[in-house]
């Protein structure tokens, strides 16, 4: 006899560049914690803070959830995009009717742009060695 433990949260996984974010939204709680730090301390730039809260403001669910995020990889702007993507996915799991709004704003699309790899014979991905006449 296996007993199933009912989850008290909804999960969503987001990504951007090489950053991945595991997002848990818990109905009834408040606040956004990223790697156990308040999101305003973790993301010092206002545009990053706006990116993180954008799906909540769009769906008008800012006060309904407590959000816990574990994010790793890439830099801060990539992580902010990954968190936004993960929150949007979790909101869609919670309420499928929000999908239309979030899809229209592009929050459910993973930004797949990556850093181009360095090629041999070049100094960077496309930068050639400096030419010298002598």
Characterization of the model:
With about 130 residues, this protein is α+β, with helices and mostly antiparallel strands. It has one domain (about 10-105): Ribosomal Protein S5, domain 2, CATH 3.30.230. It is built from 4 helices and 5 strands. It has helices at about 40, 45-60, 75-95, 100-105, and strands at about 10-15, 20-25, 30-35, 35-40, 65-70. A 5-stranded mixed β-sheet has the order 1-2-5-3-4. The longest helix is centred in the middle third of the chain and has 19 residues, at about 75-95. The termini are far apart. One of its GO terms (molecular function) is structural constituent of ribosome. Belongs to the universal ribosomal protein uS9 family. This is Small ribosomal subunit protein uS9. It holds the Pfam family Ribosomal_S9. Keywords: Ribonucleoprotein, Ribosomal protein.
Number of helices: 4
- So what's the overall shape? elongated
> What is the spatial order of strands in the main beta sheet?
1-2-5-3-4
- Beta-strand share of residues: 15-25%
Largest sheet: 5 strands, mixed
Spatial extent as radius of gyration:
19 Å
Supply the helix-strand structural class.
alpha+beta
Secondary-structure element series: EEEEHHEHH
Could you tell me how far the N terminus lies from the C terminus, measured between alpha carbons in angstroms? 82 Å
Mean pLDDT: 92
* Unreliable sequence segments: none
**How much helical structure, as a percent, in the residues?**
25-40%
Counting DSSP E segments of at least 2 residues, the number of strands comes to 5
When the domains are counted, the total is 1
| CATH architectural arrangement | 2-Layer Sandwich
Q: What's the CATH class label?
A: Alpha Beta
């Amino acid at each position: 006899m296996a007993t199933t433990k009912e989850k008290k949260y909804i999960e969503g996984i987001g990504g951007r560049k090489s950053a991945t974010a595991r997002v848990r939204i818990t109905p009834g709680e408040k606040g956004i914690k990223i790697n156990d730090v308040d999101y305003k301390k973790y993301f010092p730039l206002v545009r990053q803070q706006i990116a993180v809260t954008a799906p909540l403001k769009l769906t008008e669910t800012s006060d309904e959830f407590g959000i816990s995020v574990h994010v790793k990889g890439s830099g801060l702007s990539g992580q902010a995009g990954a968190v936004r993507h993960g929150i949007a996915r979790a909101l869609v799991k919670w309420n499928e009717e929000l999908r239309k709004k979030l899809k229209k704003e592009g929050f459910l699309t993973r930004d797949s742009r990556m850093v181009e790899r360095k090629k041999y014979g070049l100094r960077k991905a496309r930068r050639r060695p400096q030419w010298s006449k002598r």
